[in-house]
Amino acid sequence: MPVHECDVDEARDRLREAGVEIADGNTDHEQWRASTDGATAVAYDEKVVVQGVRPQEIEAVLRDEGGRTHVYFDGACRGNPGPGAVGWVLVNSDGIVADGGERIGRTTNNRAEYQALIHALEVARDFGFDRVDVRGDSELIVKQVRGEWDTNNPELRELRVRTRELLDGFDSWTLEHVPREINDRADELANEALDDV
């Protein structure tokens, strides 16, 4: 549950300007509440706590700056094709901004890797970051997206185009292949999502 140490009156004004509905707090300790589809922000003395399944919109407004994030992604597949899942982690100078994993249905390993990358980039975009340094342990995906390798598979070509569209939406980006040990948290989240039945 993200906690923002801030001036809660300024935070309320920023959320209101962004079109987020503001209401009175539910207890004596709550100064106000702000709700969007999938998230609620609750203001206390000098801090705002964000909860819910999709906190990105509120988080982006409260952060009120672009900034840089490191994005880690990994796709997992049991069988090829088989049940698939994605995992992602966003990290900045304050630590982990967001992470998660989810099942994506029957797929191949390469499609799962692309879907993980796409999902991670969408989360980074929704959080309002303007610069991303992306890291993944799939050499194939990294080299295809950077244009060093091509593919004859039309589905992978389409996923590569979507990935480049997302990357080009940032002010700057890098994409680097890293060893699995460096990407272990994203890998762990994808596999945990596969294990959850």
From TrEMBL:
<dbReference type="GO" id="GO:0003676">
    <property type="term" value="F:nucleic acid binding"/>
</dbReference>
<dbReference type="Pfam" id="PF13456">
    <property type="entry name" value="RVT_3"/>
</dbReference>
<dbReference type="InterPro" id="IPR049863">
    <property type="entry name" value="RnhA-like_halobact"/>
</dbReference>
<dbReference type="InterPro" id="IPR002156">
    <property type="entry name" value="RNaseH_domain"/>
</dbReference>
<dbReference type="InterPro" id="IPR012337">
    <property type="entry name" value="RNaseH-like_sf"/>
</dbReference>
<protein>
    <submittedName>
        <fullName>Ribonuclease HI</fullName>
    </submittedName>
</protein>
<dbReference type="GO" id="GO:0004523">
    <property type="term" value="F:RNA-DNA hybrid ribonuclease activity"/>
</dbReference>
<dbReference type="InterPro" id="IPR036397">
    <property type="entry name" value="RNaseH_sf"/>
</dbReference>
<feature type="domain" description="RNase H type-1">
    <location>
        <begin position="65"/>
        <end position="195"/>
    </location>
</feature>
